[in-house]
Amino acid sequence: MTPVVATAPENILSVQDVKKYFDVREGLLAKKVGNVYAVDGVSFEIARGETLGLVGESGCGKSTVGRLVLRLLDLTAGEVHLKGVDISGLSRSEILPHRREMQMVFQDPYSSLNPKLSAGSLVSEPLTNFKQGSSAEIDQRVQMLFERVGFKREAMERYPHEFSGGQRQRLGIARALALNPSLIVADEPVSALDVSVQAQVINLLIDLQEEFNLALLFISHDLAVVEHVSHRIAVMYVGKLVEITDTRTLFKNPLHPYTQALLSAVPVPDPREKKEKVILKGDVASPINPPSGCRFHTRCPNVMGRCRSEDPGLEEVETGHRVACHLHAPAGLTPSLQR
Amino acid sequence: MDNSTAGAARTDSPVLQIKDLRTFFDTRDGTVRAVNGVSLEVYAGETLCIVGESGCGKSVTAMTILGLLPKPPARIESGEILFQGTDLLKLEEQDMQAIRGNEISMIFQEPMTSLNPVLTIGRQISEVISLHQGVSDRVARDRAIEMLDRVRVPDAHQRVTEYPHQLSGGMRQRAMIAMALSCNPKILIADEPSTALDVTIQAQILDLMRELRDDFGTSIILITHDLGVVAEMGERVLVMYAGRKVEEASVEELFHYPLHPYSEGLMTSIPRLNESLAEDGDRVRLQEIPGMVPSLIEEIPGCLFAPRCSYASEQCVAESPRLAEHRKQHHAACWESGNFANRLESSTP
User: Fold this and answer.
1) Cβ atoms < 10 Å from Cβ of B78
2) Global pTM?
3) How far is A165 from chain B, CA to nearest CA, in Å?
4) With an 8 Å Cβ cutoff, are A267 and B170 in contact?
5) b or e along B55-76 (b: 16 or more beta carbons within 10 Å of the residue's beta carbon)?
6) By the CB < 8 Å criterion, does A162 face chain B?
7) Local confidence pLDDT in tens for the 339 residues of chain A
8) Nearest CA in chain A to B275
9) Which residues of chain B make contact with A228, given a CB cutoff of 8 A?
């Protein structure tokens, strides 16, 4: 069963109003001339055994969120709690013990594995680094992991270039699982794979997540993939979450106009199904000069006067369903300003 | 369905006809049989989709049509590419240049790498026009603005003076399309034209391509790995696997009555919207195609898909199946396809 909306004690990850601004520099002296508002106030939680899908288009800041969660980047503002501990302000050495608890699976299995290490050493490296037992114990765990992701023992002797894309991704997953983490951030883990192999990796991720009871942050631009993997889904647009709810609700009853457009834009692999498309005009807004008010107002088919000036907060419209849109502002709080 | 144009036999002659094309690459490790005996026809005003996974030979087929492959390492082992009665494979480079970009043009997946970064958009489009149509620079430039307008690039007057890096991905792809259509080609080859774009931008570009095909009457060869794009854009579709054509049918036929196990596997292995959750709210596992794509270097006697196929028999391993028509206008290269088709016949009156 779907773990119901994250309630306090079992939260593995809690992200609170996280912001990350990058400098825009220009000229000979690289003078700072502005900010890239890559992530601008994002909050969510992930419970043990739960997958949160994070979707959005390129440049919306979804990968930056993944990196902030793992503290691969420093936060501009906000807090990240891992198993109740605030890790947002920790120094490099202080964070080290927490790294065991959180691992990452990358998009490109070609560039994220050290070509000079054999498959076996790639998976045992984290165990050796964190001194997880004797070498016999480490060997045993590596063997178990290889078996679990569907490799024969002989594969341990081979090097990354001898593996296909899908196999490398499985190797990356085995490496991420080595330390038995509580949280895995997977950033577009199947985007570089062919469809026939993609299904293998998606199924493996679902199985392993249940088996190891992992909290999984699954970042992707592919809505169909995210739908298959996730219990809950967060939709991001130019640095902010616009909607977050459980998977079924998001697809049956999407409330934010951006979510609706995103869902309708996905090509349907069935020639008999001719659906009415909402084709958005224009391009994704720039995170350097984000539009005033609601960041989606420049492309929104339902834009109203207040959308241009007032930024809608992410408000709960029904249990576990939060939306940042003036159309769905909770009743009573907002006088109707529709023109 | 039998009355649809795609289902009925075509009486007009094709604009482009490829016969038994074999494009090989000589590498240090051996000969890579990238395209291994592919035949196809493209008719006026239709969209033919070529679908398959990376390495199946779909892009190499396109590059061979336009003579864009460096030789060596590429080598045309056999075949003919007939365009308006001429075999493109026999043309001198000079004659090919008169066709490329003029009668047959191409758009690529990554518009940033296929546009020249140091020339303005306007210059790049008008260059094509003045080269092929022999008009003055001024006329060519006006034509370029008109084309950009046509592909709905806002402020076309301003945009012609800008460089590729100043445009967004979607706008660059529009500029590429404007350039490709500027000489009103008979055939437009689009190699993964929307793959590098975001979904909302992809929807815009696909919509634009449909509209332009209808307005200009251009035939489109659309190369993609995305079955969703095929279902939305194509009339006929050709499925490639490991350098071979394994199935060809109308889009409707292929999606509802696939006759090759590989096509069937592709259909069932893709995640689809709104189908991920079972009744109890639990997640549904996807169907997998086990194993992986075979090496194109080794000579494999039987069916190339046999090692991954659940229907494979001894015959499949020993002998390569020929492409045959098993239903009306529906060809598949599989020993079992006849049985599949018979079963369909008896279950659907």
Assistant:
1) 13
2) 0.83
3) 10
4) no
5) bbbbbbbbbbbbbebeeeebeb
6) no
7) 455 454 444 789 999 999 999 988 888 888 888 888 999 999 999 999 999 999 988 888 999 999 999 999 999 999 999 999 999 889 888 988 898 899 999 887 778 888 899 999 999 999 988 888 888 889 999 999 998 888 888 888 888 888 888 888 889 999 999 999 999 999 988 887 888 788 888 988 998 998 989 999 999 988 888 998 999 999 999 999 999 999 989 998 999 999 999 888 888 888 887 667 778 887 788 888 888 999 999 999 999 989 999 999 899 999 999 999 999 876 544 444 443
8) A228
9) 271, 276, 283-284, 286
CB contact under 8 A, A224 and B273: yes
- Distance from C-alpha of A194 to C-alpha of A98, rounded to nearest angstrom: 34
Provide the residue count of chain A.
Answer: 339
Rounded Cα–Cα distance for residues A168 and A189 (Å): 11
Distance linking the first and last C-alpha atoms of chain B: 13
CB contacts of B159 in chain A (<8 Å) are none
Are the beta carbons of A229 and B269 separated by less than 8 Å? no
Using alpha carbons, select from B266, B322, B299, B244 the residue that is nearest to residue B34. B244
Give A286→chain B minimum CA distance, Å: 10
Token look-up 């106030």 returns: A41
Q: Do B276 and A197 touch (CB under 8 A)?
A: no
| C-alpha distance from A112 to closest chain B C-alpha (Å) | 20
Put simply, the chain A residues between 223 and 262 with a CB less than 8 A from any chain B CB are: 223-225, 227-229, 231, 247-248, 251, 261-262
3-state class (DSSP) for residue B194: coil
- Report the sign of the C-alpha dihedral through residues A110, A112, A115, A119, in that order: negative
Tokens of A86: 């605030």
Looking at this predicted complex, what is its ipTM?
0.75
CB-nearest to B200 from A2, A57, A270 is A57
**Whole-angstrom Cα distance, residue A50 to residue A9?**
14
Contacts of A194 in chain B (CB under 8 A): 53-54, 225, 293
C-alpha B37/C-alpha A293 separation (Å) is: 58
Strands A232-237 and A51-55: parallel
Tell me the nearest-neighbour CA distance from A71 into chain B, angstroms: 27
A329 — contact with chain B (CB < 8 Å)?
Answer: no
- The verdict on A195 touching B (C-beta cutoff 8 Å) is yes
A25 at the B interface (CB within 8 A)? Answer: no
Q: Does A24 touch chain B (CB under 8 A)?
A: no
